[in-house]
Write the structure tokens for this entry.
Amino acid sequence: MNYWLMKSEPGVFGIDDLAREPGGRAAWDGVRNYQARNFMREMKRGDQALFYHSSCATPGVVGRMTIVREAYPDPTQFDPDDPHYDARSPRESPRWSVVDVEFAQRFTDTVTLARLRAEPTLSELLILRRGNRLSVTPLDRAQWEGILALARAS
DNA sequence: GCCAACGTTGGC
DNA sequence: GCCAACGTTGGC
């Protein structure tokens, strides 16, 4: 099993939006960065992911979800009315992928970015790296457990 | 709103 | 292939 951290702006699509979807399931669409896309293509059904709220008053990890469908073409890349439309993505070999995620838990309290930075054992977290902008990053098991422990402790 | 960091684009 | 310009991300 693999562990991931996935960012989204709560003003666009937050964890409460995911929880409200039918079955708590949604396609994680709109990713337009090759490195992030490649990580999504590595995801396996049953992998676990943390939901991170970015560009908001209190950025941080707000809950967790499960990968329920492995990578397939992102339909929004072919939709001219979608903000993530990509006119240069070939139909026969789509450039962008999505995975389907399923809501698992919303933490009572956000594990804030400040709290993550204050935790010495999480110093290698990719999202804490200076200038990091990747919206999808892998976690190792210790990081996953560490963040869940912080969520339980709050 | 500001700004640092980074990815992408496009001229050459 | 280089690199300047530009756009985006995301914390503050």
